[in-house]
Specification:
The complex is a heterodimer of chains A (96) and B (569).
Chain A (H helix, E strand, L loop, with lengths): L1 E5 L8 H12 L4 E6 L7 E2 L3 H6 L7 E7 L3 H12 L13
Antiparallel strand pairs in A: 1-4, 2-3, 2-4
Helix pairs in contact in A: 1-3
Chain B lengths: L3 E4 L1 E2 L4 E8 L19 H29 L2 H14 L2 H12 L4 H17 L4 H20 L14 E5 L4 H4 L7 E6 L7 H9 L3 E3 L13 E5 L4 E4 L3 H10 L9 E2 L5 E8 L5 H6 L4 E6 L13 H18 L7 E4 L27 H5 L3 H15 L7 E5 L5 H21 L7 E6 L2 H5 L1 H7 L2 E4 L1 H9 L17 H16 L3 E4 L10 H6 L4 E4 L4 H9 L3 H13 L3 H7 L1
Helix pairs in contact in B: 1-2, 1-3, 1-5, 3-4, 4-5, 10-12, 12-13, 15-17, 16-17
Classes of the chains: A alpha+beta (96), B alpha/beta (569).
């Protein structure tokens, strides 16, 4: 199962949004990868902070999420919500 | 000694003065040659790594909580990122591979971080700062693995200016803002953690100064100018004086609210129109007391209507131009002479017009009615101008409802005359300056007849305590914190609100930031003070929690003696 979406936080997948993203990805029973749609770096495991920040994804970039496993759909929903939320509203989000 | 100036990037809008103190953490990456692989037991080394990882996690969690409490969630979030880097599968497998290859845990950690650090260093902008995060995590693990003692940044003597190559989030989490007068770093940018934390804690900081910074020695006297982005070593007296002036509380130009969102107007007390501009520059929202006596003093006759019009208009304009929304409130007090303010051509008698004689509104309604009406004409005309929309007129020393009604009749009469003459006018907000015990008892009756009340604590204290302000021997009675005065203030605010008026305070008391919480708790809507204390009071308001302030006010009002009140505030 996969989903392509545009990253909303200005700083992209970096610092706080990345930390929230990785933490959330790790909480689901699913194998999840994330990759930049326009980029030459290979997709990385969504529960690796190093991998996710290393993508160098900025706000406005498109990313592709791929998930396999029992929680795949729920995981994609949660990760999509994080990537669609401006950083300043992240605190108000209910995370799984 | 001549000044030496070190230019960098200013990270805070503040200035500090202090003594240089170099922070040089031990270089934990200097591990020496690894032992022969066959002497290394992989299982033992893995256990060592696991233990250091667990310790690092505990440290990070503690630092995250400390930062969250002192600075806020946003700044604490960096520790979440560190926690995730720490347990990252790529790092863990890198460490495991190195251990399997025969390296002891410290060398394995150093090697596992090499690749990722290089990868981030090669990226641009903010991503490059992630390399600093990784170094910070690596060094934390190495420090724990090598049992290296941590350099304690929390124990610096007061007035220290911390100088360092770079300050990591773990370094800044130890900062004691009370002790640290400033920060200067060789590396780093405005978005570096040290810069962000320094900003949040209000510590003056200059970052990215470069290797030149090493010319400064421990103990050198420094001015850290976070606004200009420079550190000045061995500052001249001149530089030092200027720095000391600007170490004052930063100016807040916007309207301020308490921490939980109650907006409190912070206004300035002015004696002349020339004071308007400086008050705007100090962040005053408006004018809570414009004394008009200056227009009447040091001359041989009263000023005419046009001269007064110009003066009042000038003050309104100074604020209207610079204050957001363009409708700052300018409270002008009608002529308040008598008592301690003699004016030659008004023929005041020290006895007749003393503190308990004909002064303030009593003169305006009596022998000086003509002067009063001229002043009201000027004010009503200014109120009709663009700049004058926020004009308000306040009557001093009112102690009966009859006086207030008579004063309002004068306003109406002046308005009728201006109407007949075809001149532009508007009736401004009207208010009473509450200065006498009678006026505190009548606050509800006043509030039903005017828009606002403003408590003049200097005269109110004098009259409530029956102690003349000009008698030094009475100074013990001249304390606005005296329970009798505070209860009079409380009564005024409560009754004023019940009557539908807003209630401000324009005495000395309003400008004391140590009393701001109490005054908010007492329910005042506006505080007016000499312009110089506006920034301190605005800052104090932004830190007030209204619930705590209400409780403070309740316990202060329950106190029967000045000593008890003093203990509470």
């Amino acid at each position: 199962m996969e989903r392509t979406l545009t990253v909303v936080p200005d700083d992209g997948l970096h610092a706080r949004p990345a930390a929230t993203f990785v933490e959330t990805a790790g909480s689901f029973d699913a194998e999840i990868t994330v990759g930049a749609v326009d980029g030459n770096r290979p997709a990385v495991s969504a529960d690796s902070m190093l991998g996710v920040t290393g993508l160098g994804v900025r706000g406005g970039d498109d990313v592709r999420l791929v998930a396999e496993g029992p929680d795949a759909e729920a995981a994609l929903d949660a990760l999509e919500a994080i990537l669609s939320t401006p950083e300043e509203d992240l605190d108000d989000m209910e995370l799984p | 000694m001549t000044e030496r100036r070190f230019e960098g990037i200013g990270a805070t809008p503040t200035v500090g003065i202090g003594t240089a103190s170099w922070y040089r953490p031990t270089d934990v990456t200097d591990l020496g040659e690894p032992p022969q692989p066959e002497t290394v037991d992989p299982a033992t080394e893995r256990d060592r790594f696991d233990a250091s990882q667990a310790d690092a996690e505990a440290e990070l969690e503690a630092e995250r909580e400390r930062t969250r409490e002192r600075v806020g969630d946003d700044e604490a979030a960096v520790f979440n990122a560190h926690l995730q880097f720490l347990t990252d599968p790529q790092i863990e497998s890198g460490v495991q591979d190195a251990i399997d290859g025969g390296l002891p845990a410290p060398h394995a950690v150093k090697r596992a971080f090499e690749g990722p650090i290089e990868q981030f260093e090669a990226m641009d902008g903010m991503m490059a700062e992630r390399a600093d995060d990784l170094r910070d995590i690596r060094d934390r693990l190495l420090r724990l693995l090598t049992d290296t003692e941590r350099t304690d940044l929390g124990e610096l003597p007061e007035g220290s200016v911390v100088l360092a190559e770079l300050l990591t989030p773990s370094d800044t989490a130890q900062f004691d803002p009370g002790a640290i007068a400033g920060v200067g770093t060789i590396k780093g940018g405005r978005t570096a953690h040290a810069a962000i934390i320094a900003r949040s804690l209000g510590i003056p900081a200059v970052v990215g100064i470069g290797e030149a910074l090493t010319e400064i020695d421990d103990g050198d006297q420094l001015v850290v100018d976070g606004e200009a982005g420079a550190i000045i070593a061995d500052p001249s007296d001149d530089t030092r004086t200027r720095a000391a002036e600007s170490t004052q509380t930063p100016v807040i130009s916007e309207a301020v609210s308490t921490a939980d969102g109650t907006e409190i107007e912070v206004a300035a007390n002015l004696g002349t129109p020339a004071e308007a501009e400086p008050a705007v520059n100090r962040g005053a929202d408006g004018v809570g007391l414009f004394r008009t006596e200056f227009l009447f003093q040091d001359r041989s006759s009263a000023p005419d209507e046009n001269e007064q019009y110009e003066a009042y208009h000038e003050v309104c304009e100074a604020f209207a131009e610079d204050v957001a929304g363009g409708k700052p409130r300018i409270v002008v007090r009608t002529l308040d002479v008598g008592g301690d303010k003699p004016i030659d051509y008004l023929n005041l008698d020290p006895e007749e017009n003393g503190f308990l004689g004909a002064r303030g509104i009593r003169l305006s309604l009596g022998e000086h009615a003509e002067i009063f009406e001229t002043q009201l004409r000027a004010l009503l005309r200014v109120a009709a101008t663009d700049a004058g929309v926020g004009l308000a007129v306040m009557f001093p020393l009112v102690s009966t409802v009859e006086e207030l009604e008579a004063a309002i009749e004068h306003v109406e009469k002046v308005a009728d005359n201006l109407e007949e003459e075809g001149l532009n006018y508007a009736i401004p907000e009207l208010g009473v300056m509450v200065e006498t015990p009678a006026s505190t008892y009548l606050a509800d009756a006043f509030a039903e007849r005017v828009d606002f009340l403003s408590i003049g604590t200097n005269d109110l204290t004098q009259y409530v305590q029956a102690a003349a302000r000009d008698l030094d021997r009475m100074s013990d009675y001249q304390d606005p914190l005296a329970p009798g005065v505070l209860r009079a203030v409380d009564r005024t605010v409560t009754a004023g609100h019940a009557g539908g008026a807003w209630v401000g305070m324009c005495g000395e008391m309003a400008g004391d930031p140590d009393l701001t919480e109490l005054l908010v708790g007492l329910g005042l809507d506006e505080l007016s003070m000499s312009a110089v204390t506006v920034p301190d009071v605005k800052t104090a308001i932004s830190e007030v929690d209204t619930e705590a302030a209400d409780e403070l006010a309740a316990s202060v009002l329950a106190a029967d003696t000045l000593a008890e009140v003093r203990d509470l505030v």
